[in-house]
Amino acid sequence: MPEAPVVEIRNLSEHVDETVSVLGWVEHVRTHGKVGFVVVRDGTGIVQGVFVRKALSDDVWQAHEETPQESTVRMTGRVKADPRSPGGHELQVEDYRVLSRADDYPIQPKEHGVDFLLDHRHLWLRSKLQRAGLRVRAEVEQAIHDFFYERGFVRIDTPILTGSIGEHAGTLFETDYFGRPAFLAQTGQLYVEAACPAFRKVYCFGPTFRAEKSKTRRHLTEFWMVEPEVAFADSDENMRLQEAFVCYLVERALERCSEELEMLERDTAPLERVKAPFPRLDYGEAVERLRARGHDIEWGDDLGAPDEVALTEDFDRPVFVYNYPKQAKAFYMKENPDDPRTVLCDDLLAPEGYGEIIGGSQREDDLDKLLARIREEGLPEEAYGWYLDLRRYGTFPHSGFGLGLERTVAWITGRHHIRELIPFPRLMNRLDP
Amino acid sequence: MPEAPVVEIRNLSEHVDETVSVLGWVEHVRTHGKVGFVVVRDGTGIVQGVFVRKALSDDVWQAHEETPQESTVRMTGRVKADPRSPGGHELQVEDYRVLSRADDYPIQPKEHGVDFLLDHRHLWLRSKLQRAGLRVRAEVEQAIHDFFYERGFVRIDTPILTGSIGEHAGTLFETDYFGRPAFLAQTGQLYVEAACPAFRKVYCFGPTFRAEKSKTRRHLTEFWMVEPEVAFADSDENMRLQEAFVCYLVERALERCSEELEMLERDTAPLERVKAPFPRLDYGEAVERLRARGHDIEWGDDLGAPDEVALTEDFDRPVFVYNYPKQAKAFYMKENPDDPRTVLCDDLLAPEGYGEIIGGSQREDDLDKLLARIREEGLPEEAYGWYLDLRRYGTFPHSGFGLGLERTVAWITGRHHIRELIPFPRLMNRLDP
User: Fold this and answer.
1) Is a pLDDT exceeding 90 seen at residue B415?
2) B41 three-state secondary structure
3) Nearest chain A Cα to B202, which residue?
4) Is A299 an 8 Å CB contact of chain B?
């Protein structure tokens, strides 16, 4: 008898009433008298195999009873549509081979501590909620590329190894680069600005690094950020692009990840309300609102996480806070011509307590003002020589922003801690696996 | 009079006989008596503005004559289709404003040394050949994502900051990670292997690092690599995936970057011949062929760059060399059951002298054999604990490969040095800009 063809579980609906094999890992075995059930995961879906004692050889029957969780198996049988089954189909098993018997699997349905799970991240990835979260991440990533590609942006990969350029000195990872110090990039922004005169609309997407001693649910030392930059766009156009982008990502997840969002028990009603335009609060107005709520904040202070959460509570979608005081923001942001105490910038705050997912600004395009800011902040002027060149050779108005991937995916999936939305999280106390 | 609408140059064909403005940078100014020409680049294309003395105010006429290269301008005029013009259209100029006068631009049409150009990479990006090469890169990157997305692969971002795991000890960049050493990843492979039991078919795409003191046209210290990994795929299926992938990338570049390939004077005939199946040479056969050509190589040696080039000369498309001797390859490659001196692996060599663009293999899935190899190579066993777990909890046949982005794009564009195919190259002696 020829071997049955191997099919991926997600394609079983094309093989109803045929005999096929699936290759995968055993999630669960149950035996009730003369009937047994083995749930197999093959990475494209899960399917239950039904073992009927009297229809099977002793070997096959015994093998199913003794299969440890996460063993690799080849399970062969006739495909039956069954809406009650996980995945919508089941296999009436005809043959079953254990390809590799697993040792006692460390992750059990019981409650494990998070340190234990993170220590076993290489196995924890196989768990249902982790699979669902990371599939949403992958879908959002493809959506990021599609959004910019469809709009004629050119992708520009910015370097990780850099001279001392960064926004947050003191939180840089350093390495020896053939005898001179190099630092891991915290942003690709300055580099994408340089690419604007070549391509007008550009973006980068990659890992960025912060050697911060933060242990919150919103911090990773290595996280992914997408940073578009648009020549001749002002701050208003920048916010409109952010709106369109965030709506696109949310819509795409709703459209193509409904199964995953359901597994994650995500209430999708708040996501369905994410439509442009988003409300915009001037920084001054935001401070007044916060003071009226009893927050201890003065004009000039940056907003803290509890402030961000409070500001979103009055709205049913993400909220912009724009034009912050100069001293609260980075040196490269453009001075607001209508109020030089402030800069043309915005933060986008996600609803439901998720806080800032985007920081954006129009960039300072005046050479003298930019130089003055670099000096005021005591930054190493010589390191910015090439960046200043962009203001010497045809300076131009331009704006851009950075969206944090893990924060965005945590919000879309409704997960509490962003460390679950990256395959191998790096935290202050965690570098393995 | 209301201001004319700003349009992107690539969309001029939709505005023939209308008056529009373009915003961009001046590439070139010529004046012949009573007619002048200004070529403007806006990042989406270039267009020539025609200035007719008698139709323009003194201010406008004078402004055009005095515009330094790379100044930012707003040029307004009526769009005329003109097949002889660069870009296929020209503007009959009605108004012209210099938004920012550039300083003397350092890059001139004359021959500059490569060090000078690399020192000015932030400006060199604006040059025609650099723009063309990087556009092809961006197109190939989108094609990479589309290829895997269309085939149901799940993208898995692997970490840059890692414990001491890597293929080439001694060529690692090291950093202090809150008191313990961390290393910049040389590959994401071990991590994507861990994700196979969750998603079956996965891939990563990101920057990788080699602290190698190599100064060749094929080396960067920071380069981008795409690494797919497929559960239950053997070495043969792995080579078929590589073939399909490379054909897809080449076809996509031919289809959507014809203008760029023409700018780069790329002869596309060799690219059009890149069709599956690719010839396959067993390592032993490759050595015999090389010896017959007079190369000084013995069975057991790895192939050098000149060997790779020689092997491709007899064929009109990329060539696989497969099943190398164990000692020439990494510890994680699966022993060849038909010849245990060798491993189930392949390198894909690009034609026209470009050499290796892919290294792939079936992975050793036997715990004991893998452990023995780790010990033989004197690798730190404790660092591979989690990787060995993958062989303890449902081990499975699987294969994957890594394709180097810059080498591939250098081949597709026909450029000599891969440093031009990454926006900000990092070389042994170069960390800026």
Assistant:
1) yes
2) strand
3) A43
4) no
